[in-house]
């Protein structure tokens, strides 16, 4: 009889654990409200992305989805409003592009100490976007701090121009 009681207890525990799965702190992108979707990371370690679609009435609607992009050292993260503001990003944007790096104001905010040193999730995302364009973000940030206009010109003219050592970044022009 004791083993029957034990089985019943295990079954009840299992059912309860499934029922309360979402309340135990697990982040599932599809369960997030749209206003916190972008710059969040699911419990699986995959980035959440805001996507748009046409609903049955023909209007554009938005939904939070799980991307295939895995963040190596971070999971279960919803970006703070402080980081959103410090880094100059828009949580309501659909899709994120490396084109943002071409905007001097965005790059300046991204490279600011308030963002670069305190918001590793956003910096990691843009580090990878920059790398996809052949740009090493730390070098770009060094150039932005010393000569923002030249850094933007180099980025616009040839992304390889921004991939230099820190010695090159400090050299006079």
Automatic annotation (TrEMBL):
**Keywords on record:** Signal
Taxonomically, which superkingdom?
Eukaryota
> Which ranges does the record mark as transmembrane?
none
**Where does the secretion signal sit in this chain?**
1-25
- Tell me what this protein is called: PAR1 protein
